[in-house]
Specification:
The complex is a heterodimer of chains A (352) and B (87). Chain A has 352 residues and is of the alpha+beta class. Helices cover 41% and strands 26% of the residues of chain A. Chain A is built from eleven helices and 13 strands. In chain A, strand 4 (102-109), helix 4 (118-126) and strand 5 form a beta-alpha-beta unit. Chain B is mostly helical and 87 residues long. Chain B has a single domain (3-84), classed as Orthogonal Bundle (Non-ribosomal Peptide Synthetase Peptidyl Carrier Protein, Chain A), CATH 1.10.1200. Helices cover 62% and strands 0% of the residues of chain B. The chains are: A alpha+beta (352), B mainly alpha (87).
Amino acid sequence: MRYINDIFTVQVGKTWSNETLLELYERFINRLSVDNESKSELQKFVQFHLVGQRTRNLFTPDLALMDNFEIRATTFEAGVNSALDALAAKIIPTVKALGITFDAIVTTTSSGNLMPGISYRMAHRLGALVQRNSVMLDLANVGCTGSAKALNIARLLNSSFKNILVLAIELPSTLVNFTSTRFDVWQGNCTFGDGAVAIRISSDPTQGNMALALEEILNWQWTDIGLNLISWNYRDYYNFVIADEKVFNRHVQQFVVDALCQVKTAWQDELHWAIHPAGITLLMRLSRKLGLSAEVIQPSMAHYSKFSNMSSVSIMHILREVAVNTPVNSNINLLTMGAGFNVCYGRIRKDA
Amino acid sequence: MDQAAILNVMKTYFEKKQPSMVSEPFSDQPLNALLEDSLDVVDFLFHLEENLEIQAEVDIEQLMPKLMNKKCGDAAFEILHFVSDRH
């Protein structure tokens, strides 16, 4: 059995409110070369997506600068390096105190590309705390399910691996697009936030602040009918685009319900869930379809309200919060969904 | 179903949810002022779905932007059009 012994979270960049973002976005919508009626429709759409007190952290100090490949890519690199510095500062004292070294680093990001990869950059920062012959693996283009996949890889590595570090870093602010008239592009502009997380995994339940046993992580893919539900589009950089919202919501809800119907354990009665906060509507519709109480989705709601959707990073931040309030010997359910189309369900037992 | 009936369904929701925020004439109140958070927006939508007997799930992305910056009376009129297309 493998255990999560620590979840290290860091804040990336500065906090932006809906109000500040709306003010900026309205200025850019006004500059679009479309008729006034189209601008008004887009403005109302953006107002709807930025209603209320929601916040998010954005590494980019000035979103308006994100207008060419070089700035976007270099900002992504700077953001990743900054997140790695902050995570390493938390990991190093813990790992030194335990007297252990990592023999594998598994990383995921979908919001940019780097060479050398993020695992190597973290190893550089951790120095002798990472073994020379360690496995370094960077997952790319996995989307919101990336951290669950990385966790599953760590779970499945053979028993010769003693200490594994899983990282998820996402900087969707570098993808922001003010020139499009597409509603889904603006939905992306409104939905996401930047963030980072590191998860320390071992085979020893006594080694650290917590012992979350990774009992099972299951995956389902619907590439036959779900391949184009979430994808990249391009201009000078990547654009997050989704299929028609109605089709998207209907399919996603059905995929998740179908996936959970195949889970043999009795998840229905359990109170502790970390669910990917794709968006408020989807969360609330899913909870109704699955018969989950409002209490069950509250941690995901609270996370979304504070950090918005940080893609693969969010669910691990939520898991950390949920784990604190979960009694020992109780289960925590992980549920995430994303591009592919993919649904991941994980069952974790809090042993300590 | 008419605009007045929809307005009544809306008023019932807000009187139960946040009575201190509801004032008269209700039809002149800006809807935005009553929906303070995205959670409220979705909850309001579920109330409409249940009480207006809308058969299929309402596409929130399609309906709610139409209601932004509208007074409750005008929002009820938009909802009437939206619902009529679905019955």
